[in-house]
Design goal:
It is built from 9 helices and 19 strands. With 481 residues, the chain is α+β, with helices and mostly antiparallel strands. The protein folds into 3 domains: 116 residues, Nuclear Transport Factor 2, Chain: A; 75 residues, no CATH class; 247 residues, Cathepsin B, Chain A (Alpha-Beta Complex), CATH 3.90.70. Strands 11, 12, 13, 15, 16, 17, 18 and 19 form an 8-stranded mixed sheet that branches. Strands 1, 2, 3, 4, 5, 6 and 7 form a 7-stranded mixed sheet that branches. Belongs to the peptidase C1 family. Belongs to the cystatin family.
Amino acid sequence: MKWILICVCALIPWVMGTGVLVGGPTDQKELDPDILKFALQELASGDNSLYHKKAVKVSNVSTQVVAGTNYRFTVHLADTDCLKSSGASVKECRLTVWSKPWLEFLELTHVDCDDGVSEGDTQGKGASTELPAIESSILVRNQQGPEVTSGMNELLPREASILSLQRLQSYNHFKSFVIRHKKQYSSLAELKLRFRIFRQNMKKVQFLTETEQATGKYGASQFSDLTAQEFKTNYLGLKPEFQSIHWASPEEDQYSNNSEIPLKFDWREHGAVTPVKNQGACGSCWAFSVTGNIEGQWAINRGKLIPLSEQELVDCDRLDNGCNGGLPSNAYQAIMKLGGLETETDYKYDAVDKKCSFKRTKVRVTIDSAVNLTTDEDLLAKWLVHNGPISIGINANAMQFYMGGVSHPWSFLCNKANLDHGVLIVGYGMDEFKLFKEKLPYWTIKNSWGTSWGEQGYYRVFRGDSTCGVNQMATSAIVKN
């Protein structure tokens, strides 16, 4: 009988964008059967053996509560209906299972197996396959042309890359995606179309994963059956090409340039951020970015956090174009002209363009002015700490498939000049790339695609090198005390 020893551990997820682990591992007497079943199914999908395997022993079970639960255990697997012989081969495999229980989401993201050795000697070393391999560096061409070397994920060996892509593009993976995100297609023809689009998008996922410079994870998000144009039309909406209202920039001393700020800061911990919202299939991201900024300004300066109406801007902002896009800088002017913002309760969000039904008598929040902020990310951090959340534009290319971690795609994959999505910076922090013992500064960004996307609705992106243009269109309303 052929024995295989497999060590399975869960990927340590990030806790609400802070990178801080909560608690330590706790020994358990038994393992959740669903976790074992998932791990075995995922392993079998990438196994070329002609025989099914069965688990004959599970040991060393522990759990750790983080942003979800980490499951660590060792399972012994045996081939069924195989010849028994002496000196049976033993293989040791280390797997990583990523768990997001609040999304009913599990994904096998890492496989590292030693070559088979005889029983009693499980320390033999052999070839490994990692999904993805995170080691050394790669040669790439930057936008100027010469070859450069930079520490990041290594592109997978060709065979491993092909196997990984085959799994991502498999119909079983697509079916799991459809079930997880409750997708419904009108016909068999549409299902086939969406499967073809899904397969193309998984190539992007594979490349983003293999070239990721930090700890970003990419996968089959709810947008994985959409073309790039469908995604941009329905779920983005920032329009830099619109004629923009020009606001003054603060003087340098208004950034408190000489002040010390903490290593990490998050306005969610100080009562200045409303729950994550969902713009739906409407290009109104700009409106959510603006209301989030003003909600924070009002809470900080007037002492009350009030969820504000995006639909008012979609319907009544004549400087922008509703579900077809807009700009935060224009929206501030429109709000001042209208006389203020109603609450989300009084002017409910419908994710469609409608006739303006604004009522001045229901205005709850007003603004005094607005400012265009610096592109200096150190100064932006100081402004954030001293003044509140910041409305920004960003290139959302990597966000379509973002699942978690600190995202740091290469600039040729996420050009800082191509801003197409409006979001809100609510904090910043410092993580660590443990493999290289490198610090990973990041921004914490509130998105408007619901809590099932990203890290419960939030995006962490590398801070310090204008990743995806995060610093290129920073603005804020001004609310006086």
